[in-house]
Amino acid sequence: MYFAKITGVIPKGMDLTEPPEEMRLFKDLTEAKQWLLGEALTELPTPVHMIEITKDGESVWREYHWSHDALKSKNELWWDARDPGRHQREAQRVERKRQVEAGLIPHDQLSLKEQFEKANPRWQGPYFAWLPTSTMDAGTIWMSEYWVLSTLGLKYKNKFVFYDND
After folding, report:
1. 66, 91, 104, 112: which could form a disulfide with 99 (CB 3.0–4.6 Å)?
2. pLDDT in tens, 143-155
3. Contact indicator for 127, 154 with CB cutoff of 8 Å
4. In degrees rounded to 5, what are phi and psi of residue 36?
């Protein structure tokens, strides 16, 4: 017997305590795949995270939201229905970033993040260490900000370890 399982995600703003899951037993692997990519996928009320088929506790087939075209399409359709203007906002964000990098927007009209990025082109951040994060200057940090030196890809708690020469 093949055990087929589809797992969704909890999108921000949805009042769910745990991700939705659907499971069924099948005698045939093909039937299990057809159910997962058909009925189960269309009936899932949220975007999909993963589908999996196991036999005797061993994984036979597994796909994630980024690794299978049908799962990608399901998630895109779900988000397009939930947030129709997201593609336009992303295009506007990319265009604004291009304008900032080209110097077409005056300094006083830049956000604090844009001012930081323009003044410190070799530093990315600040990021927030929600999980223990290893930095070059402070060891392992947690629940605090850190920066990444883009040319080296190294994380630092104190961005003043190296100065910009740009």
Report:
1. 104
2. 899 888 877 888 9
3. no
4. -60, -45
